[in-house]
Amino acid sequence: MFPPFFALLLLGTCCLAADSMPPAPKLPETSGHVEIEVRDAGQQAARKLSVHLVYPRNRLANVSSGTGLMLSLHNWGGTVWDNAPNPNRLSENYDLLVIGVTYYQSGDRPGAAEPYDFGYVQAMDALRALHYVYQGLTASGQSFDSTRLYCTGGSGGANVTQMASKFAPNTFACLVDLSGMASLTDDIAYHLPGGSSLDARYSRDPASPTYLTPDMQEIRDLGNPSHLALQAKSGNRCKIVVIHGEDDPVCLSSDKHRVADAMRLAGLDVEPHFITKADIDGERILNSGHQIGERTGLLMHFAGKHLSPQSAQMCRLTGPNDFERRVPVAYPTSNGVHTVTYGLESPTLLFVPGKPPKG
Question: Could you list the residue range(s) of the whole structural domain that residue 138 is in?
Fold first, then answer.
């Protein structure tokens, strides 16, 4: 059902022409889930993408002109809302329509033959889900607040959150990264000793179907200085809240410090909260490792003021988002360019090999 990894090297995420795909289903009237069809490569069969929705007070009719949209994304190996901030509490406290995504490789297990995607196709699935809801509300004439677009996730879901913001640098007013991976480091890609305990199952052998090319590793680095400069140049004003344990053995804090510093240097609005042993209070903060504490409570404590309509510090977009702009977002890497294209249909991602243009 899913395309082999090597097929994604040439065509990351690509939909066929609009007339070859069935129309998206209407938004359900009550909280629940719906399936939309997506396609990862031109010659691959379409696959179903499950989009999970929590409306204010569980009804679409309760979405109002003040209601924002928020993705809440599950962890590596999870599904639906696993280890993500609780959608019901987010919706209730912040007047949000909350979206969960059973994205590509949800439910991934150690030892699988295929390498772990690590936020590339997964971020596109998150953006497809957001686009589906955004367009569904717009097409039906349902009022909502398009300046309040947010994203969050825990661990692997935080990595997908950051990658989604990278691919859509003008779309989110605020994102909350809870203990997420910062980059596809060598120790994670190849399961090397002495670093993270994660194993993304890639190969260094160019002849292997699981070979990790430099371009696919570079695009997954959230601290890539040239990419951050492009995000800043595009007008990115997203508030990036990072909550991370200093002693995290899974997603190393040293790499997240590097990324946060690079974001700040590029001029992005990053607000890091690195949790130390001295911060442990036995209630909200239970440790300085990977979990830290209950993630919904952590989000509400550190980032609630940026999400709440009652707060003077609530984050809003001040210009058109990427769905409205319809301007391609391109990131050059060593041997090609990754380009996200926006239009009336779901956003697409294409990697074209070749020497990137200068400037």
Answer: 5-322
